[in-house]
DNA sequence: CCATTCATGTAATCGGTTACATGATTCT
DNA sequence: AGAATCATGTAACCGATTACATGAATGG
């Protein structure tokens, strides 16, 4: 074997391998899977996906077959090779950096002392509503999962387990974000009308 | 006035304006302010900051004076112009997109059904500890702030208020992240040793 | 002696977004 | 008639990271 210098696969590459581990998919399918808000904590457009798939194939981690279709364009269906599955497992076992967050709204919160408090509170209530909606969507999907997957949701070797874990994170994240928006909006308004 | 086509300032540019609103600073000071984990929800290296400061100055939003120093290199101290302060306020009043998150650990969680459960649980406990430490650090800083800032912490027009809001978000975020890591590690281990 | 802090810059590279490009079918 | 879905690609650009580059003073 010539594992002389593994060209250190990008995170997007691993994301694609992870989706393909559920079964063969076209580039289009992968783009759907990484589309907001389905890919809660990863996302990419098709213009990034197609070149990356070509790179994965060149590295021997993925192979494709062309599936001709009547009534719609032919598609290239990609699947993991054994090397691809091994690369995915190796990545899973490696340590992970804690993510560096960039969040424009929190940056604005840092500057909120310069803003008009009622206007800022209004913008924050809009965000609270947006996060509330996402939260409700994730909770609905978790309920759907529970019906479809049964005990697969709690068995670590089931693909449902991974989706469940991500959904849980989404639910916790959106709830916390919503609560913070409400707290800050309340604080801004409380100071506006003193008793 | 010739506000024909404002070249749409980058988010980093606004971050720098926001820091300079607290008072004049050198590029080096700004880099410290945007250094992990001081800039909890924004960060940048000096190689990004120096060119951006030049752009802000070219746009008339910032000006600098050179301060000669004995015993250490001279520095360029930057301060907001009235136009810079106005640009900052305009940005604050504009609507904000909800941030798109990319988080490698959550991506791994999606694939965790392919991993060795005890090994994955161990990695998650490491992350839980890292978030626990950040949480403790933020809580300590909030306590320090409360002593230093007094009621400034709750007055929306005080610069302390913005820092307080960001810290609160950091605390909620890290607490939620830690809890999720612990939940997932527990779930992986619970399935390993069935009663 | 070596690492760190202060202090400022440039260059190469990489990852991601937006726009360009094409084209059939199905739904409103 | 126009929009949306399926399907695949390329090119230009922008933001961010990493590495290159310099140099004095301080602390272990």
Description:
Two copies of one chain form a homodimer. Chain A is mainly alpha-helical. Chain A contains seven helices and three strands, in the order H-E-H-H-E-E-H-H-H-H. A three-stranded antiparallel β-sheet of chain A has the order 1-3-2. Chain A is elongated and about 70 Å long. The mean pLDDT of chain A is 93. The interface between A and B is large, with 71 and 71 residues. The structure holds a DNA duplex (28 and 28 nucleotides).
Features:
homodimer; mainly alpha; 3 strands; elongated; DNA-binding
What is the chains' assembly state?
homodimer
Tally of strands of chain A: 3
Helix content of chain A: 55-70%
Strand order of the largest sheet of chain A: 1-3-2
Describe the structure concisely.
The first copy, chain A, has 195 residues and is mainly α. Helix content of chain A is 59%, strand content 7%. The longest helix of chain A has 34 residues, at 159-192.
Give a topology summary.
The structure is a homodimer of 195-residue chains.
Chain A: H1 11-20, E1 25-26, H2 27-33, H3 46-58, E2 62-67, E3 75-80, H4 82-93, H5 104-110, H6 117-149, H7 159-192
Antiparallel strand pairs in A: 1-3, 2-3
Chain A binds a DNA duplex (28 and 28 nucleotides) through residues 10-12, 26-28, 44-48, 50-51, 69, 71-76.
